Every structure is written in structure tokens, then in C-alpha cells.
């Protein structure tokens, strides 16, 4: 079986495929290397022999995870690496190796699925937007704080903004002006996210008229799905690109 990993700044997304490389067996989201190993060891239900991964973590952290995987499962590991060009997409960064690899893979996946111009929006620790034209040229993108960062900055840099996760979840039942701190913060941050999305859409229309696809990915994609009814919510977009960048023979 094949293990696929997307190591973000907050969470590791994992997925196990049959050896055919297409049939999903199981997947999940974990907060640490140890939790990943525990999920994969659970009942020894996976016979892993290959692994492909993408990481935006430090080289040390990624090396350490790879060593643990090799030790625990004896898998051979292939990592996604930066490229100037791949699968018809041209990296638009001046220093292409500095573009986040999760962004790069999501773009490869998006361009492949759209067969044309696409706007890829990723809602993780950070929120990112990337523009790929019909000719595969990446125009560049934007990075801003995601929901967890916005919320935590307010919590840690003010004295009187304090609330728990259950209250936060409840606050999202509506977008009316908040009448309690938790509502004011959660809904305020949500409106910032939505405003960001609408601005990206406007920009995409200026470039491409109506001829483009929008992909929403990342753990918080569902928070904004309502703002772009025509968007494809694609939680596995990074994995689509990962399979393209790291074929396992
Ligand atoms: N099962 C889950 N476990 C953890 N976070 C989740 C889960 N489902 C959705 N989320 C949301 O996803 C966000 C993290 O998104 P993710 O794309 O995993 O970030 P990153 O790639 O930066 O680690 C969290 O803020 C959380 O709200
Ligand atoms: C922008 C990111 C922090 C997003 O990470 P994530 O929120 O998915 O954990 C990551 O893609 C990254 O570290 N990029 C390098 C900087 C850049 O893309 O310009
Ligand atoms: K990510």
C-alpha cells in the first residue's frame, strides 16, 4: 500500500492507497508525528511499502519524520521537490524554490483538473491564493493569516479577548454583528476571510473573464465555500498534485 502525507504547519494530512495508486483505503488528520505513527500502526491494518510526501516544515522536522517512517514501516519515501516547470505549469516565483510546495502541488492538481485557468485558494494555518493562466503560467499569489492565526493573534495580543473552542464553534451559526466577544471576533475573522476570497475572485475575473475554475482546499475551506457557489471544494487537491510530482514506479 502507498502512504501519502501532506505535512502542513499545524497538521499532517495522511492517506493510504492500495498499491494500484488510486483506490483510497483510509485517511486522517493528525497533530504530531507520534499521532501519525499511532494511526498507521493501529491494528496493523496497512501493509505499507511506499510513501510520498510533501512538507512545508523545516528540513530537520521532515528528515526526522522520514526516519521514523522508515524505521517503523520499512517504506521507501519520495519527497516532492521544487521545480520551475511541471505538468504544463510554470512556477511564477522569481526564486521558484521558495514557493511553498503545498501551493505548488495544489496548483498542479488544480490546473490538471481544470484543464485551463484556475484560482487555487488554500485555507490552512495561512491562507494562500494562486493564479494559473490557461497557458499554465503561474502569475503569482497572495499569503495572509488563516483563521487559526487571526483568532490566536487576537487572543494573545489583547488582554480581554478570551473564549473557548465550543463557544467559537457556536458563534459561527450566524454572521450578524456580534453581541458577545466570541461572536464579534469569530464573525469578524470570518468576514475577513470571505472578503479576501471575493477580492481574489474579482482579480481572477479581471484576468480571465468568466473562463476559470476556482478550487478551495485546506482544513478551513468549508468556512468560505458559501461565498463561491461555483467553486470546487477539493480537500485532496494537494494529494492530486503530489501523485503527479512523485510518481511511484
Ligand atoms: N479533522 C481536522 N483536524 C484538525 N483541523 C481541522 C480538521 N478539519 C478541519 N480542520 C481545520 O483545518 C485548519 C487547519 O488546516 P490545514 O489545511 O490542515 O492547515 P495546515 O496545512 O497549515 O496544517 C484548522 O484551523 C481547523 O479549523
Ligand atoms: C504559505 C505557507 C506558510 C502555507 O502553509 P500552510 O498554511 O499550508 O501550513 C507555506 O506554503 C510556505 O511556507 N510557503 C513558503 C513561502 C511562500 O510560498 O512564498
Ligand atoms: K496546507
TrEMBL record:
Pathway: Cofactor biosynthesis; coenzyme A biosynthesis; CoA from (R)-pantothenate: step 1/5
Entry EC no(s): 2.7.1.33
TM stretches of this protein: none
Domain of life the protein comes from: Bacteria
One GO cellular component, as annotated: cytoplasm
Cofactor note (record): A monovalent cation. Ammonium or potassium.
Gene Ontology biological-process annotations: coenzyme A biosynthetic process
Keyword set, alphabetical order: ATP-binding, Coenzyme A biosynthesis, Cytoplasm, Kinase, Metal-binding, Nucleotide-binding, Potassium, Transferase
Catalytic activity: (R)-pantothenate + ATP = (R)-4'-phosphopantothenate + ADP + H(+)
UniProt binding sites for ATP: 6-13, 125
Cofactor: NH4(+); K(+)
Record flagged with keyword 4Fe-4S: no
Active site, renumbered: 102
Cellular location(s): Cytoplasm
Enzyme type, top EC level: transferase
UniProt-annotated binding residues for substrate: 93, 100-103, 181
Binding-site residues, K(+): 122
GO-annotated molecular function: ATP binding; metal ion binding; pantothenate kinase activity
Family annotation (PANTHER family): TYPE III PANTOTHENATE KINASE
Record-stated family: Belongs to the type III pantothenate kinase family.
Function noted in UniProt: Catalyzes the phosphorylation of pantothenate (Pan), the first step in CoA biosynthesis.
Assembly description: Homodimer.
Protein name listed in UniProt: Type III pantothenate kinase
Protein species of origin: Pseudomonas frederiksbergensis
Originating gene: coaX
Amino acid at each position: 500500500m502507498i502512504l501519502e502525507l501532506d505535512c502542513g504547519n499545524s497538521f499532517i494530512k495522511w492517506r493510504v492507497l492500495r498499491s494500484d495508486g488510486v483506490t483510497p483505503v483510509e485517511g486522517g488528520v493528525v497533530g504530531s508525528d507520534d499521532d501519525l505513527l499511532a494511526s498507521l500502526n493501529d491494528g496493523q491494518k496497512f501493509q505499507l511499502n511506499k510513501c510520498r510526501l510533501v512538507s512545508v516544515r523545516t528540513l530537520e522536522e521532515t528528515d526526522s519524520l522520514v526516519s521514523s517512517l522508515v524505521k517503523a514501516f520499512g517504506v521507501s519515501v519520495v519527497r516532492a521537490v521544487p521545480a520551475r516547470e511541471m505538468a504544463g505549469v510554470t512556477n511564477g516565483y522569481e526564486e521558484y524554490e521558495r514557493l511553498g510546495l503545498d501551493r505548488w502541488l495544489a496548483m498542479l492538481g488544480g490546473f490538471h483538473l481544470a484543464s485551463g485557468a484556475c484560482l487555487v485558494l488554500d485555507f490552512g494555518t495561512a491562507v494562500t491564493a494562486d493564479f494559473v493562466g490557461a497557458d499554465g503560467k503561474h502569475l503569482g499569489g497572495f499569503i495572509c493569516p488563516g483563521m487559526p492565526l487571526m483568532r490566536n493573534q487576537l487572543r494573545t495580543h489583547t488582554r480581554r479577548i478570551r473564549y473557548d473552542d465550543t463557544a467559537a464553534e457556536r458563534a459561527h451559526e450566524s454572521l450578524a454583528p456580534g453581541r458577545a466577544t466570541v461572536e464579534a471576533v469569530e464573525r469578524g475573522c470570518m468576514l475577513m476571510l470571505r472578503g479576501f476570497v471575493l477580492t481574489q475572485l474579482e482579480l481572477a475575473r479581471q484576468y480571465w473573464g468568466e473562463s476559470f475554475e476556482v478550487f478551495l482546499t485546506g482544513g478551513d475551506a468549508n468556512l468560505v465555500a458559501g461565498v463561491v457557489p461555483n467553486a470546487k471544494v477539493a480537500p485532496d487537491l494537494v494529494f492530486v498534485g503530489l501523485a503527479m510530482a512523485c510518481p511511484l514506479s
